[in-house]
Each structure stands twice: as structure tokens, then as C-alpha cells.
Amino acid sequence: MRAFISGAGGGIGSAIKELYLHSGYEVVAPRSAELDLSDMSAIHQWFETHRAEFDVIIHCAGYNKPMPAAEIPLEEFMKTQYINYISLLEIVKANDSYFKEHGGHIVGIGSLYASISREGRAAYTCSKHALVGLIKTLALEYGPYNVLCNTVSPGFVNTKMFQQNNNEMKRAELAAKTAINRLAEPEDIAKMVYFLGNPTNTFISGQDIIVDGGFMAGSYQTIRR
User: What is the mean pLDDT of residues 38-52?
Assistant: First the structure.
């Protein structure tokens, strides 16, 4: 079994990679220096020299540079879209014939911002909403070939990117708003990704699974009782 994992150098991606390796998969996980997901021609060139025969595609690559919507340069906005979901489409297209012959699984890493939003996250929120929509469409189109497609949308995960975009006070505030009173660890997300993205998942498709420790269930609350 072969798995392609984008973004495996990040906190969540590396945890996913380790779980698949531990489960006996051959994992192909090019770093950004090897495969620039903001450049569609680079993706096409990469697949010209690498075998596109993957049973599982995990799209964990993510780019998030917060800024007010009115200040986002178009180039910056489009870079976010290319990395966060358009690149996945190109990767799936490269693997199309293999999926149609053998079936398989696709899992995209979404976000709470695929359901809600926040100031300064216009580009990121657009990309994550689009990722969920893309995955749902792939679920419909590849369903007849037994390819199951889902997104896993993490809440607030203790990664370097999260720490860079949120100061210590904000991190503590968000952790306190989860039902279990902590941030997620990358391994929490990896377990759900693997659950959806291996042959034991035979019927879950077209879903966006939110893994947020109960944040969405009561995030409107400001005081714990």
C-alpha cells in the first residue's frame, strides 16, 4: 500500500506520516523544497518523474498568513488557494487512472475555518471552505470507483503554525473554550485521518469530520460554570 502525504514536514503532517509508516505503508512525502505546491507546473513536472500509483492521498499542506481582507494582495490570496486546495486537485488528477482501477482513499485536512471564520483569515477561510467542497465533489465523482473522500477539520492544534499566529494569552483562551480544556496534539488529528484513510473505512465518504475537543459545541460561552 502506498500513501502520498503533502505537508508532512508540519506538526500534523509528520504525525500522520509516522502513523502510516508504523502501519506498514510506503509513504511518499515530498518536502516543499522538492515540490512547490503553489506552482501547478511544478506539480505536473514532479509527477512526470514519479510514479502516481497511490492508494491513499492525504493533503495536509497548509498556508496561513493572517491579514485584513482589504489588505491582501491578490498574489498572496492566490498562493493560499493554490497550496491549500488547488494543488490537491492536481495531485488527484495525476492519480486518476490508479484510483479508477484500484479504489482508495482521499483525506484533506480542513479546519474549523471551513465552517466558521475569524478576523484576518479571509484567504485561509476561503481556501478551507473550498477544500471541503472539493472533497465532497470528489466523493461523488470517485464513489463509483470505491474511492472514499473526506475531510478532517481540526480545532486548535498545538503546532508551530498555531503558536506563530496566536500569542500565549490567545492560546490559553482558546484551549479553555474546548470541552476538555486543552489544545489538540497532532497525534489526535492523525488518528482520525488514519481511521478515514485506510481500507477499514468502507462506507464513510463525503464527510467533514470536526475534531476540536468540543470547541464548536460551546465556543460561544465566555464563562465556565
Answer: 97
